[in-house]
Design brief:
By secondary structure, the protein is of the alpha+beta class. Among the domains are: 3-154, Beta Polymerase, domain 2, CATH 3.30.460; 420-468, no CATH class. The chain is 54% helix and 11% strand. The strands form four sheets. A seven-stranded mixed sheet has the order 3-4-5-2-1-8-9. A two-stranded antiparallel sheet has the order 6-7. Bound molecules: cytidine-5'-triphosphate. Cytidine-5'-triphosphate binds at residues 34-35, 48, 50, 123-124, 128, 170, 172-173, 176.
């Protein structure tokens, strides 16, 4: 179906017909624009409707909310000349057509009333710049002054005006271009892309919160690597996340190189993304080798080594998350843990797997063991098929063992079988170092397979360990 026809049909529903009535009553031209129109053509679900009013957006919004009656929620932002109506899970944003120019050092625009054309001139990309009329006599008529349809057909992100103007009006759009290219798997037009590279330093005036929003949208896409490659090629990555840029490149000493850890990381990220929607697992994939540049060494005997890069990487996470305005609670702890542990299952898959190594892995990974295994498998990016096949087979063994041992010993959500209170009661101790030592000894004995994870054997073991420490049960216990 023709795009124009598709749009006309898609907006032929009560919510838009009601908007149309309101436009008539107010006597002003109204258009649905932006992402909603784009997403109709691309068959993407969309809950946000943007309406441009050639006149007062607020007045139309107020009338519309009144018409919808109960259940409609109106919010007016007089400073910005915009208003929003929420109704039954839909959000309609109203804005008066504007002519805007931005001052060089802030995103705060100087706003004047304008025509629809003015409004379309100031939007970010041609694919976001298609308007459909809501007025009765022209309902559904499409205005596509910058060739948005053609760009959707050819899967191109392009600015409507000279990209230097569009990006300097709002440098966040550089991130948006890359985000749309990633989400939609579109190409950025060469001229537009060159302007991103030219203007990348202007990203410094954008708040961290807005930048991370875009990065997370890239992260949630089907192939997040597309975005990170573009961020890298445009020069933005170096400014936003230099620790990731630092993974790039291959050093050569005496003809010996190592793999490019940036491109390896992107492959791991895509591998994880194919298996899981968990944003934080994806972050763990992006960060898993972040410590490598810091610990990289070359020596004649071993060639290139990255000793303890997992530990170093885990240590870097807090600083990176803080700088990127990412949450510093449970999410960060999870990413840190996975980065720290990401080598463990690989090492197990290389060695003969002992039960106690499996127990220790289960103990350290806890409820995140499945995610860790997924990350670890995604980390195998070797081109050597034999090597990959061998790893996969060994991984199968590790998984099987994890299952068996967890069923037997329940280590994943380990709770000490003898509590601290009980240790204190039995030996008449107050909270003190020996209590911790006894508990630790019991835990170690379980992980080593000396005793099963059960109360009786743990109690008896406690008596034995305490005796070695010169402690005896007090009478009556
Ligand atoms: N817009 C713009 N410049 C920006 C942000 C938005 O020109 N920096 C315009 C675009 O026309 C865009 C519309 O405002 O389509 C709505 O913006 P927004 O809701 O942020 O984005 P969508 O395009 O709807 O896409 P998404 O919902 O995926 O963010």
């Amino acid at each position: 179906m023709e795009f124009a026809e598709k749009i006309k049909q898609a907006i032929d529903k009560p919510i838009f017909r009601q908007l149309s009535d309101v436009a008539e009553e107010e006597g002003v031209p109204c258009y649905v624009v932006g992402g909603y129109v784009r997403d109709i053509i691309l068959n993407r679900p969309s809950k946000d409707i943007d309406v441009v009013v050639v006149g007062s957006g607020i007045a139309v919004a107020e009338r519309y909310a009144k018409k919808l009656g109960k259940g409609a929620h109106l919010a007016v932002f007089r400073n910005f000349g915009t208003a929003q109506v929420k109704y039954r899970g839909m959000e309609v944003e109203f804005v008066g057509a504007r002519k805007e120019s931005y001052s060089r050092n802030s995103r705060k625009p100087v706003v004047e009333d304008g025509t629809l054309e003015d409004d379309q001139n100031r939007r970010d990309f041609t694919i976001n710049d298609i308007a459909a009329s809501l007025n009765r006599d022209s309902f559904g008529e499409v205005l596509d002054p910058f060739g948005g349809f053609d760009d959707i057909k050819s899967k191109t992100i392009r600015t409507p005006l000279d990209p230097d103007i569009t990006f300097s009006d709002d440098p966040l759009r550089m991130m948006r271009a890359i985000r749309f290219a990633t989400q939609l798997q579109f190409d950025i037009a060469p001229q537009t892309f060159r302007a991103i590279a030219r203007n990348c330093k202007r990203i410094s005036i954008i708040s961290g919160e807005r930048i991370i929003d875009e990065i997370n949208k890239i992260m949630k896409s089907k192939y997040p690597s597309i975005g990170f490659r573009l961020l890298d090629e445009s020069g933005l990555l170096e400014l936003i996340l230099p620790e990731l840029s630092a993974l790039k490149g291959v050093d050569n000493v005496e003809g010996k190189g190592h793999k490019d850890n940036f491109f390896h990381t992107l492959t791991v990220l895509d591998n994880v993304a194919l298996k899981s929607d968990n944003l934080w697992l994806r972050w763990a994939a992006l960060m898993h080798d972040i410590g490598k540049p810091v610990v990289k060494r070359y020596d004649n005997k071993n060639g290139w080594t990255f000793h303890n890069h997992n530990y170093m990487g885990a240590k870097m996470i807090h600083r990176i998350f803080k700088k990127l305005r990412l949450p510093l609670g449970e999410e960060m702890k999870y990413v840190k843990k996975l980065v720290d542990l990401h080598m463990r299952p690989i090492v197990l898959a290389e060695d003969i797997v002992t039960d106690s190594a499996i127990r220790r892995l289960l103990f350290d990974a806890g409820v995140d063991i499945e995610d860790l295994m997924l990350l670890c498998e995604a980390d195998i990016t070797s081109r050597n098929r034999e090597k990959v096949a061998r790893f996969r087979e060994n991984f199968g063994i590790v998984r099987q063992k994890l299952k068996e041992i967890e069923e037997k010993d329940r280590i994943r959500e380990f709770q000490p079988p003898v509590s601290g209170e009980e240790v204190m009661e039995v030996f008449g101790l107050s909270p003190s170092r020996p209590v911790g030592d006894i508990k630790e000894a019991i835990k170690e004995a379980i992980l080593d397979g000396i005793i099963p994870n059960e109360y009786e054997p743990a109690y008896n073991y406690m008596i034995k360990v305490a005796a070695e420490m010169g402690l005896k049960p007090v009478k009556g216990s």
